[in-house]
Amino acid sequence: MTTADSKTTNSTRAPVAPAKIAITGLGRVFPVRKQDVVALDDINIDIPAGQFFVIVGPSGCGKTTLLRIIAGLETPSSGQVTVEASDGDRPLNSMIFQGDSIFPWMTVWDNAAYGLKARGAPDSQVRDTVGHYLDKTGLTHFADAYPHQLSGGMRQRVSIARAFANDPEVLLMDEPFSALDEQNKTLLQEELLRVWEENRKTVVYITHSVDEAVTLGDRIMVMTARPGRAKTFVDVPFERPRDVLGLRHVPEYGDMVYEIWDHLRDEVKQTQRAAVANAGSRKRRLLGKR
Ligand SMILES: Nc1ncnc2c1ncn2[C@@H]1O[C@H](COP(=O)(O)OP(=O)(O)OP(=O)(O)O)[C@@H](O)[C@H]1O
């Protein structure tokens, strides 16, 4: 495995290839009772096609809000997001969440086939594509099973198979493996990378795990405590395809994890201090000592 020097930059632009996802001056404010919650402030990112872009940041810094805005599920208060569509027939995005993203009343096969069928793909294409991704995720023998008959790891495999079979322009993943145990998480990371290597879709991936960010990502955005801004960008130099376990023996891997933690530490502490202050003022209000 060869490596190059990692590159940390405060620049919000990666001048590599035309942007698949362009985010400019993005802000999101939630009006909550008397006080507005500024979730995101002036986010500027260009994500080139084929990049595995990872977002890390302290709890509540706006990661999910950012992903939901990219997905078109949430509207920005300012700025804009553009996802470049290369083919009008393909969906713009598919999302995978931390919890179950699949339909409990459908079999594994029907879940994986859902997107293709919904847009009227020919039966032969559905058969070939779904068969391929169930094979890739080790689910061929579970094609007729229902989600409740599967383990958490297998259900996330179904989510992966469904998302890739749907063949979206971009793939959006919100802490998809965070509820899994360490062993399953490592296996799923390996499988995700193996499936992703086939066509290198543009991915935006949220995680709380710095290890996971370095293992999977091409570029990592470290966010500040709320209001969420881009604190820094780190380019991950490890060549692909990557060996998830082998990577951990590479000295530069530990250096990168440390470097990102260094950026993150103050933000996590600030989030904790804000939580303590909020709890204190809530308690004072409840005790009538305002
Ligand atoms: N619909 C909403 N109404 C009011 N406030 C909201 C809403 N959605 C999110 N927020 C607030 O915006 C901030 C950012 O939330 P978001 O879920 O995006 O953060 P996050 O970084 O994904 O958090 P976590 O890491 O804990 O999942 C939080 O303070 C949250 O309480």
Automatic annotation (TrEMBL):
One of its GO terms (molecular function) is ATP hydrolysis activity. The keyword Nucleotide-binding applies. It comes from the Bacteria. InterPro entries: AAA+_ATPase (IPR003593), ABC_transporter-like_ATP-bd (IPR003439), ABC_transporter-like_CS (IPR017871), ABC_transporter_ATP-bind (IPR050166), P-loop_NTPase (IPR027417). The keyword Nucleotidyltransferase does not apply. Keywords: ATP-binding, Nucleotide-binding, Transport. This is NitT/TauT family transport system ATP-binding protein. The lineage of its organism: Bacteria, Bacillati, Actinomycetota, Actinomycetes, Pseudonocardiales.
